[in-house]
Each structure stands twice: as structure tokens, then as C-alpha cells.
Structure to design on (217 residues):
């Protein structure tokens, strides 16, 4: 654990920590290793988690084991005196109609219960097929469809009364500055964690969107 982690005030994980999550009963060595790492951090600082589109099934059992608190999909936090909205961000990709249909079903009351009642091996195969299908479908979607919808961003920022919004999901790290009703606002997008890490380091004086290169195996 780095001295930077120990000196932080909190850690927020904005979803898609896992490539897929098939249930808290999937106690694979990898999942247990991740839980152990997060718990080692949570002994020193609070850790918060927002569900992503790939790990929306993470439940309270895993949260308790890893030592983090699950937050609502759109949460307001106090960031050194500033009111900030955080989210995974997939709920704002409203032009991807097929995904929005799946999202509505998968976040409903009956579908998760039905899936979690099936054998673990079935869920794993289902998740793997789902990821393969998703990768193929992305090739047929425009960049615009896969990005957040600007009008939805404006709406949620106005509804939540914030001028800073932090999210992930689109894997397009950037800092967007724009106007809503002549008010300057900012949207910060985190990147993915496939070949490098993407983090937003917040202090009382600055926000820094950084790429963290992985150490050699």
C-alpha cells in the first residue's frame, strides 16, 4: 500500500471494477484477492463503490467482505466543501437503445433474482457470452451512440444543482468544460483499467486526472 493511499481522505470506485460479476457467491481466488486488497485500504480510509454496467450485481455480502460502502448510482458528495455529483455514467447513454432496454431489465426486481437462482457455472457462461456479444455490438455502434447524451448530462447536473460531475463508463478520459444556462460547469470522465490505471486525484486545491502505469509483472 502506498503512502498516497494512506494519506487520502477517501477512495471512490465508480463501477466496472470487474469485467463481470455473477454473484457474491462467486468466491474465486481473483475475487477474494480483490476483496483483500480493498479491505486493507478500508482499514485506514473509507472506501465507496458505485455499481457499473458490468458489476451491477455486486451485493452487500461482497461489500462487507471488502470493507466498502455501496452508494446510489447517482450520489452527491462533499469534496472539500464543494458539492459534486459522482456516477458510473451508463444511465446517461440514452441513445444506445438496446443497452438501455437491458439496463432497465437488469436493474429490475425480478431479473436479478431469477439469474442469481441459477447455478454459478451457468451464470459464468452467460456472462462470458454477454461480454463477447457486447464487444461485437460495439463495432456496429457509432462513437456518438456509445457516449453520454449531452442533454441528459445537462438535465442531471441541473436537477442535482452541481457544477462538477465525475463519472466513468465511456472509457474516454477527459475534462469537459461547458456552459449550462450561462453557468460554467465541468464534467470529468475517468478512463479504463485494461493497460493502465485512470484516477482522479482530488485535493483541497486541485483536481488532477492521471494515468497510472502498471508495474511490470
Amino acid at each position: 500500500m502506498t503512502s498516497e493511499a494512506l494519506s487520502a481522505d477517501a477512495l471512490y470506485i465508480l463501477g466496472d471494477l470487474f469485467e463481470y460479476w455473477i454473484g457474491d457467491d462467486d468466491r474465486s481466488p481473483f475475487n477474494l484477492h480483490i476483496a483483500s486488497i480493498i479491505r486493507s485500504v478500508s482499514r485506514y480510509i473509507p472506501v465507496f463503490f458505485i455499481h457499473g454496467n458490468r458489476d451491477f450485481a455486486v451485493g452487500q455480502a461482497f461489500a462487507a467482505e471488502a470493507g466498502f460502502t455501496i452508494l446510489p448510482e447517482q450520489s452527491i458528495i462533499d469534496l472539500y466543501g464543494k458539492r459534486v455529483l459522482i456516477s458510473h455514467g451508463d444511465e446517461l447513454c440514452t441513445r444506445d437503445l438496446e443497452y438501455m432496454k437491458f439496463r432497465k431489465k437488469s436493474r429490475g426486481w425480478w431479473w436479478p433474482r431469477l439469474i442469481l437462482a441459477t447455478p454459478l457455472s451457468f451464470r459464468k457462461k452467460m456472462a462470458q457470452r454477454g461480454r463477447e456479444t457486447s464487444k461485437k455490438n460495439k463495432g456496429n455502434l457509432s462513437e456518438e451512440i456509445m457516449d453520454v447524451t449531452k442533454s441528459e448530462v445537462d438535465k442531471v447536473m441541473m436537477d442535482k444543482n452541481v457544477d462538477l460531475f465525475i463519472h466513468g463508463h465511456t472509457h474516454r478520459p477527459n475534462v469537459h468544460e461547458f456552459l449550462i444556462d450561462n453557468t460554467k460547469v465541468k464534467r470529468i470522465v475517468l478512463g479504463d483499467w485494461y493497460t493502465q490505471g485512470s484516477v482522479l486525484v482530488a485535493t483541497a486545491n486541485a483536481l488532477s486526472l492521471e494515468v497510472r502505469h502498471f508495474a511490470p509483472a
Remarks:
- Residues 3-213 form a domain with the Purple Acid Phosphatase; chain A, domain 2 fold (CATH 3.60.21).
- The two ends are 17 Å apart (CA to CA).
- The chain has a mean pLDDT of 93.
- The chain is about 35% helix and 25% strand.
